[in-house]
Amino acid sequence: MTFTFKEPSALTSVDILNRENGNGSVNSLRAVINFEGGDKQEFSFDAKQPVYTLTVDEAHKGKKATSVVITPLTSDGTAGTNPNEQNKANRMLTLREINFNYSNPGVAAESIELDEKNAKEIYVGDLSVVNATVLPQDERYPYFTVESSDPAVALVVDRIDAEGKQTWYVRGQKAGTATITVSAKANPEVKATYEVTVKEGVDTSQLTEAIARAEKHSRTPTPPSRMPSSPRRSRTPAR
Question: Between vectors from CA 180 to CA 178 and to CA 181, what angle results, nearest 5°?
């Protein structure tokens, strides 16, 4: 796999996230980062890893990369769709994602502002979004990362949409408490934390609110009013 940059850019690292339990999980690979001027840095991984990280060394720090070449060598994958295939081993390749981490000179990060709406209590199975703002706000690099102190209790996951926007979530795994740490991508030393408590059971808060709203708007039926009776007219007996 070759990734060629439209504009050469300085990298700090490349993270290749392996799908450990999937068909085609990578066991070994080679990689090369090519830089302007024809220089390159090579990487070799002979043992299976959950994340293969290509860290730019000091000799290439600040140099602009032109491309990254990733060559998986072996995998756990098997392909059985072709009945004529004799060697079915290493015929599938599955990676979770590949992250290119850029160095950003001139982009400052002084603090993290956490969204007040970030859930502090969730239930097992719930998925809660994590929102934060890197300050001072800089549209060139507003990115942050999220980590959990105890993934067995509160697991952090991320999703990237079709437009490349990354959204972070916390998923309740089991009852307990975990610390969620949000770090600025431009400067990982800049962090903010909050605690999440995961509870067993089912979240009934929305149902309770709906019932309260229904009761507020309900009215006690008003009994029908009685029509006033018409006065009787006296009649003079005919003679």
Answer: 140
Closest C-alpha to 18, from 5, 33, 31, 6: 31
In DSSP terms, which residues pair with 71 in a beta bridge?
A: 30
pLDDT at residue 219, rounded to an integer: 58
Predicted pLDDT of residue 102: 84
Q: Is residue 182 a contact partner of residue 164, using CB atoms and an 8 Å limit?
A: no
Give CA–CA dist 174/155, Å, rounded. Answer: 10
Coil vs helix vs strand at 166: strand
Rounded CA separation 39/60 (Å): 9
Read off the pLDDT band of 42 (50, 70, 90): very high
Paired tokens of 74:
């072996």
Model confidence pLDDT, tens digit, residues 94-106:
888 899 988 766 6
Dist. CA 191–CA 109, nearest whole Å? 10
Write b or e for each residue in 177-208: b if 16 or more Cβ atoms lie within 10 A of its Cβ, otherwise e. Answer: ebebbbbbbbeeebebeeebbbeeeebeeeee
Ranges of H-type helices in 68-196: none
* Amino acid symbol at 228: P
Does the pLDDT value for residue 60 go beyond 90? yes
H or E element, residue 216:
helix 205-217
The radius of gyration computed from the CA coordinates of the chain, to the nearest angstrom, equals 31
Cα end-to-end span (Å), the chain: 121
Tell me how long the chain is. 239
